[in-house]
Design a protein that fits this description.
Structural class: alpha+beta
CATH topology of the largest domain: Diaminopimelate Epimerase, Chain A, domain 1
Number of domains: 2
Helix content: 10-25%
Shape: globular
Strand content: over 45%
Distance between the termini: 8 Å
Number of strands: 17
Oligomer: single chain
Largest sheet: 12 strands, mixed
Order of helices and strands: EEHEEHEEEEEEHEEEHEEEE
CATH architecture of the largest domain: Roll
Length: 257
């Protein structure tokens, strides 16, 4: 029996999605997931997600990185799986679902998906950047021209530093002007630069306001794969009511042989 799959992307951050409400796909199929995500020998994706039943909420999101291992929260993945659930008529334009870091609220407005992220209470200003936990660990480095950097070499070098062990961190290179953030991200688990990163966009916006006054902030995010937006409230360096928004687009669908 073949398994049907769907390919989605959120600002170039791409995912394989499987409707697993009937448990047709084994959750410990790490080698298969790694193979499916391979750019040359599989479908090709930054990650794979399973949409499953949840006892209390509309559905549950299970996320795997392209290395085949189960990952932490993925913001763009969360937006894509909401768009997928909407296409199945599983949800209305408003939904609540579970992910690895707990429940999330989302809103659908055409191809634009608004995803409410977990509050950020852990942020540390270090000598060369900011460590931010947005449901996934991120290290944010300010630089003048992030898109001109060799992200794979620089990101890999920092990602494996002892200070981020044992789990490592995603590395974000950013510049900000007039509430517009240019961002380039090296993602752990994918182990390469991705065209955009949702939790990294949130981490970068939060880090940008670390030394700013309390208040409500809105940032436009320019990634290589497209544009996102992050809004939130800041009070005493606690960040709440965080919303990540942007496109979530179906690319194609098919069957696993």
């Amino acid at each position: 029996m073949s398994t049907h799959f769907y390919k989605y992307h959120g600002a170039g951050n791409d995912f394989i999605i499987i409707d697993n409400r009937n448990n047709i796909f084994k959750k410990n199929a790490y080698q298969l997931i790694k193979k499916l995500c391979h750019r040359q020998f599989g479908i090709g994706a930054d990650g794979l997600m399973l949409l499953e039943k949840d006892k209390l909420l509309d559905f549950k999101m299970i996320y795997y990185n392209s290395n085949g291992l189960e990952g932490t929260m993925c913001g763009n993945g969360g937006r894509c799986i909401v768009a997928f659930a909407k296409s199945l008529n599983l949800i209305s334009d408003l939904t609540n679902f579970n992910a690895s870091d707990g429940p999330h609220q989302a809103k659908v407005d055409g191809e634009i998906i608004f995803l409410k992220m977990s509050d950020v209470t852990e942020i540390k200003e270090l000598e060369d950047g900011y460590f931010v936990n947005t449901g996934s660990p991120h290290f944010v480095i300010k630089t003048e021209f992030p898109h001109k950097l060799d992200i794979n070499n620089k990101g890999r070098e920092i990602r494996y530093q002892k200070r981020f062990m044992p789990d490592g961190a995603n590395i974000n290179f950013i510049s900000e002007k007039n509430n517009i953030i240019e961002i380039a991200t090296y993602e752990r688990g994918v182990e390469t630069e991705t065209l955009s990163c949702g939790t990294g966009s949130v981490a970068s916006a939060v880090a940008t306001t670390f030394n700013n006054d309390d208040g409500h902030y809105v940032y436009k995010i320019n990634a290589k794969g497209g544009k996102l937006q992050v809004s939130f409230n800041k009070e005493n360096n606690v960040f709440t009511n965080i919303w990540l928004s942007g496109p979530a687009v179906k690319v194609f669908e098919g069957n696993l042989l």
